[in-house]
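=== Structure Prediction Worksheet ===
Name of assembly: unnamed complex
Input type: mixed (protein and possibly other molecules)
Chain count: four
Listed entries:
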Amino acid sequence: MSTGLELDTRSKLLKAAVTVFGKVGYAGASVRQIADLAGVNHGSIRYHYASKRDLWCACITYLSELMDAAVHQDEAQWASMTPRERIINVTGHYIRFNAKNPELHRMVTFETIHESERFDWLNENYIRPFSGRALASVALAQEQGVYPDSIPALNLHYINIAATTSIFMMASEVQKNFGVDVFAEIEVERHINAVLTWLLGAPQVQEKYDFISMLGPKPSE
Amino acid sequence: MSTGLELDTRSKLLKAAVTVFGKVGYAGASVRQIADLAGVNHGSIRYHYASKRDLWCACITYLSELMDAAVHQDEAQWASMTPRERIINVTGHYIRFNAKNPELHRMVTFETIHESERFDWLNENYIRPFSGRALASVALAQEQGVYPDSIPALNLHYINIAATTSIFMMASEVQKNFGVDVFAEIEVERHINAVLTWLLGAPQVQEKYDFISMLGPKPSE
DNA sequence: TCCCTATTTATCCATATGTATCAATTTTGA
DNA sequence: TCAAAATTGATACATATGGATAAATAGGGA
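=== Predicted Assembly ===
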């Protein structure tokens, strides 16, 4: 058994699978391609994971846990925050997670479009709980006057998810057509500011970069 | 040669290919699957289209022309519209097109994530011109005071595209988890209203459904 | 040292796929 | 009507794939 510090075969496979599945989807990926990227013999996949499908599920589980940890990292402070501050906190961490791990949303998007039988597993275990909580959170924010209530919660929720994730899904297009690396830290923070400015109707100052000068004055509230 | 009215083999193949490529992507689709759906022998694909790739390109060209026609259908009246009215007009038609033909954005999304060599063809011929025009239009609308200028144009553009299209990409999830058919006409109009309300800061009345009652009063402007 | 288990490697196999070929059939034009 | 062209259908083939099998190797405790 390894010391647990270096990447063992199983971890290398998982890491490579996340990369490949996140780039070309389930159908486009081959277990040999994943094994090659991991630098292991493709027969080993069968040993560590029951099947290609099983490896794919492991990727989803791994990434979902990462996301959960990222979004909840300041949970202890939530109680002392205003609803508005809580939304700024969660939205920021969610966008940063997607910038660092765009594969999760890409994999989910592939399967949601595909409507495969994998989608049912994904939906029951991850998407539905996530969407349910997020939609409830949107509705609550509307009640609290933090989000605009002129838009139906369902539409606002999907616009919200799309707004936070799509620029990272479209990263290669943004890079090729506009020369912008959306994964660069300053661009990530800029996007957080953009989404929050839109959502909350006023520019939000983040810690690392002060976009307020280019965003105009903060309105009275 | 056919009269052009009934669906000949070539048209049936194109229609089936749009459906299949739009659902499972390029890698997930097989030419036999497409031929089966079209009800033709799979050998015929080779006669009408040089290759699977060629058929895929034909789908993009076909859908892009449809989109162009849909978005520009009221072009003659643009000159007599205010910038704000023009945006309402174009956004409405763009969203209705995506509701009726979600395959285009799905196919584009597949390839943009995949970053395949097909993406380069797609980008040069369709995405880049489209994004260029759209981004310029966003910047202009900001100058004209129609769009908020507190958000960088690039971010606003990608948020905008995502907001208009994603609910249709996620249609199966919305249906399964919330029982809403986003392709139903009233839902499409509701989404147009939601996006425009967000974009323009005020509810927009569409012809067919009056959402204004649930959206609150129109602000002075 | 030796044995038992865990892990890796090297092949093998049935299937699905994209494409090519060519015969069969239908359509067209004089 | 009939021959040429267009179109469709049936089949073949090389390759890639997911999965299976078993031999080879490594590691760890007695």
